[in-house]
Structure of GTP-binding protein HSR1:
Amino acid sequence: MPSTNRRVRLLTLAIVALLLAALLWMLLGALRSAVALWHELSDLPTWLSVSLGLLVAAVAGGGIWLGWRVLHPRARKQKPVVAPTRPEIDERIARLEQQRADTSQLEAELRELDKRRHEGDVYVAVFGEISAGKSSVIRALAPGAQAQVDVLGGTTRAVEHYRSTLKNGREVVLSDVPGTREADAAAREALARDEALRAHLVLYICAGDLTREQDAELRWLDGFGKPLILALNKIDQLGEHDASALDSALRTRYCDVVDAQVLVSAGGSEQVEKVHADGSKESHSRARPVQIDALLAAITRLSARGAEALEPARETAVLGALSQRAGELETSTRATQAQTLITSYTRRAIVGAMAAVAPGSDLVIQGTLATALIRELARTYDVAIREIDIDAFLKQASLSLRASTAIVLAIAGNAMKAFPGLGTLGGGVVHAIAYGLIFDSLGRAVATTLAEQQQFDQVHASATLKKLLAQTSGERMREIAALALRAHQEYDLK
Ligand SMILES: Nc1nc2c(ncn2[C@@H]2O[C@H](COP(=O)(O)OP(=O)(O)O)[C@@H](O)[C@H]2O)c(=O)[nH]1
Ligand SMILES: [Mg+2]
């Protein structure tokens, strides 16, 4: 007797063969129509056949072009950043403060925003890879200026500010984010990005073609709508021909992104060796010639409108970044609040189980307690939740729990063996730990759903609950065991 498997395969083969035959038939039909059309066209007057031919070519060309555009979407210009208003940010920070979140960094950023607005200076952030020549550019633009070190936003890493007067008399503050060690590259980059957001004008220094990351960075900076200058440094190293080729390649790529592109040679210094007549050698450092006139002109032109006119784009950038950071703080604050709730209810569930005169052999969720936990979690996450949905969810959870009672009890039993001290507490403790595991899992499952979906999705919560009940990582079980031990001690004292 042929197996069902074989029959299914034979049937599939027959269907595939039929489909292929149909496809071949259609292709032949299309070919025949095309040949017939060709004959008919050649009978027509020339002007008509040429027009029809052109029409067919245009339709075909259009189709190919459409396909190309769908497969190769053009790199779009960065969308402008949408920032919240100042009162919105103030309100969110006040709310976070009420929830005892650490808002000191956000407040420091707001203070810095206000401080720079009141000062009225034009801030120019000098941005670029390590060794691109940022510090050299600053030395060339502001010879002799002393660094003022600012510690911003509570970070211990510093941003250096150099005050300088341009040739047109405009006073600017140039900012540099120093750092040379690979180890702190990520922190330095984050600080440099924040400083670019706080500036009125951004000067992007590169010393060669841009990498994919630098390209993304430049486009990201453009999204804030502030004047952006791309300066290709170290052109003395490139030679005239290569410098001009790279310059025009960058111009083609970034004409929509930057407001000015200049070639510079910031100088720096080099070691030169002098050979004396007696053959002895002497080495000394020599300053390279500086070429920054085009850069000076670009900064002068783009800062001509003054700090006040450039302020709105700066404020948008800072408020946008603040909004994102406030969002991260809101998320972590809620997670902490939810965890505190879950721990407190898990403890209550454990105490309840220990106090029960005769724990049942089935594990049924303690309904009142579970309802209260879910309601409090919903309040934490600002999600409206209906009583009827909580009831339905708990009913479903109890049913699937009943089916896995043996597993949960086995896990609790293993925890007892693994954590010294629990074993001596007696039989009821296994149930107490099982309840602890159930409440901890229930709370985490509901909190995850609320956090990820901003709504109470029962199906998602049930699936997460099942996963968490089976997942008994050492750390979680240790916490639950510790709660059980403490609850037992307190319960015994009564
Ligand atoms: N050849 C050449 N070297 C430069 C130029 N500008 C800077 N440098 C050198 O590049 C290296 C890094 O410069 P630096 O300003 O410290 O870069 P930063 O890390 O971006 O601040 C130093 O050795 C400089 O002397 C330039 O225009 N031409
Ligand atoms: Mg430097």
Summary: The pocket of magnesium ion (ligand 2) is lined by residues 134-135, 176, 178 (CB under 6 Å). Residues 306-355 form the longest helix (50 residues).
